Amino acid sequence: MLDDVFNGRTQIRIFAQPPAPPTPPPHVQTEQAHGEVSSTSSLVSASVLAPVSVSSSTTSTALPSQTIFPSAKLAGNNGQMSPPKLSRVVNSVPDLWREWTQGLSGQPSIQSLEDQYGVSWRQSPKEKTFFSRRKVIIDCIRTAISRGESSASAVVRLETLRANGGWSLSQLYKRLNKKELIFP
């Protein structure tokens, strides 16, 4: 089946259904503001992976519907997961900050990869270089935050400088790295 997917002979349709809101089990109790105990509180949260129904068909035969989870990734031809990479389509400071702190398109955040794997997730020399250049921009935002500025304000200020200068993120990095642009 994977061979058919990689060679374009398989059509995949993904239908997502929103998960049902999580409800805590009856025995779960949490404290509310005044020390009261409640079995239904908004303080209880659960991480829910909702299954996604996938139906695929090839030009020769139809395959039955399958259920996978949204966090599942297709493995490469050698059966191993491809290492995560920084997005090459991010072109603004807010998008870079979002990729770094929250993740994009279902991928983990860069910060979580750093926290969990250290440098080992950045395997190729290209990825190491790209990461180092993007990190210069992220470090500027973090410096502004450490001086008391909100992350939103720091991101907007840096994006305004980039956009007003007509620069790409790469050009912004070069100016920051050469100290041609002082931020914060």
From TrEMBL:
Organism, as annotated: Aulographum hederae CBS 113979
InterPro entries linked to this entry: HOT1, TF_GCR1-like
Pfam families for this protein: GCR1_C
Renumbered residue ranges of the record's region Disordered: 15-40
GO molecular function term, any single one: RNA polymerase II cis-regulatory region sequence-specific DNA binding
BP-aspect Gene Ontology terms: positive regulation of ribosomal protein gene transcription by RNA polymerase II
Bias-annotated ranges (Pro residues): 18-27
Residues annotated as domain Transcription activator GCR1-like: 85-162
Protein name: Transcription activator GCR1-like domain-containing protein
